[in-house]
Amino acid sequence: MEQFIRRFLLKRLTGEREILFTRAVPSREELRAKLESIDALGIYLHIPFCEQICPYCPYNKEIYSDELAKGYVNAVKKEIDFYADLVGNKPITSFYIGGGTPTTMLDTGLADMIGHIRDALDVRCDIHMESHPNHLSAENLSKIKSIGVQQLSIGVEALVDRHLKALCRPYTVNGVKEAVGRAVSQGFKCVNVDVMFALPGQTYQEIEETGHQLVALGVDQVAAYPLFRFPYTPLGKASKTRYHVLFQSLKRRRMLGILEDIFYQAGYERSSVWAFTKRGVPRYCSVTVPLYVGLGASGGTYLKDVFYVNTFSAAEYIKALAEDRMPIALSLDLTERMQRSGWLYWRIYETQFTKADYQERFGESIDSAYGGYLRFLKRLGFLKDDGKRVVLSDRGSFWLHACEDIVSIDYISKLWGTSKRDLWPEKVVL
Ligand SMILES: C[S@@+](CC[C@H](N)C(=O)[O-])C[C@H]1O[C@@H](n2cnc3c(N)ncnc32)[C@H](O)[C@@H]1O
Ligand code: SF4
Fold first, then answer.
1. Which residue puts its alpha carbon closest to atom 3 of ligand 2?
2. Between 240 and 339, residue with greater pLDDT
3. Within a domain: 202
């Protein structure tokens, strides 16, 4: 059934039967030509290191070591130089450092990499960065501020000790609350906290208490994700036979509803499918501009009609750059229809967009291209359309969650799962 839904949506939205990533590495001149027609870019920097591997986590990461970190800094700087030559003085209007855990490199090269990016490129935006609660001592928080991070995210995950234990998180509720309190009092433009819900055995009362505690902590933004089971993670492998996406949906819907009520009442607004941000505060988020360059192991680069993914292994990434080879492992050519669908997916994920933006990007009216779909979704109460702006409703957000579980999680699992097993795959078919 889920396979059928995936195939149906893919065909309807992109006209394709499958998505094919191949081992085609672009030449410098091809990349230069692609970058020439682009006005502004985002930068994503991936730090693939963690001090521990959490059983539920799908992201590309490996255990931190000083030696790998040292090689990584040099490799990232080389990759920056490669792109700087092609990007020239085009403005960088979005800059995100994710992982893994970027704060593992706080004393071993993070500042050096950020400084190199600033020197080589024309960065005109805030830096947004992920962090681990155990790295947020007062001293480390000042370091984070001093290297120019203005928007900070903290992986809190839960505010009940038994859930933290079940998730193998290495801290207690009291400890993590203190870390969040210190970050909030540091004067960042936005402090985001990640939490997960619909955890095994989690009650509605626990989710309600968690929502209230987050508001009381004074965080600017909360990103609340249901616990996804990626098949290639230890959690996914353990729950294969017992887990049913559709059965979980009702629990998730009710828990998300509880959080929505608490955050709306406390003056937060929905700022993406998963996130609630205090009114008037700039939103913490991943790369916000449609086109971006991804640096580091597993970094993804999107340049209008093509998407590239770097090798997932830190050692292979370091080796490739040391030998003056591109670390790109896979590439995907995007037809015009795929670009439109991708653009719409991400704009809807951000919960709103203007019709003028679509017109500017694709040179046609969204009503002539997707008017039938918009009217249908409006009738279902999934979105509001005032003629100029399209805004996703809470109900629409929930159904986007459900689709995400059925479609995106499967695609991510295939792409990331294969890239982790095979460091230079010949092809990946989604
Ligand atoms: C890169 S981690 C955050 C930074 C840091 N590595 C940490 O763990 O504190 C990104 C976030 O993704 C979310 N996440 C990870 N695995 C997830 C899963 N299986 N389902 C839902 N959310 C998940 C968690 O909330 C996590 O904080
Ligand atoms: S959740 Fe964070 S700390 Fe845990 S493995 Fe994933 S990236 Fe690393």
1. 50
2. 339
3. yes
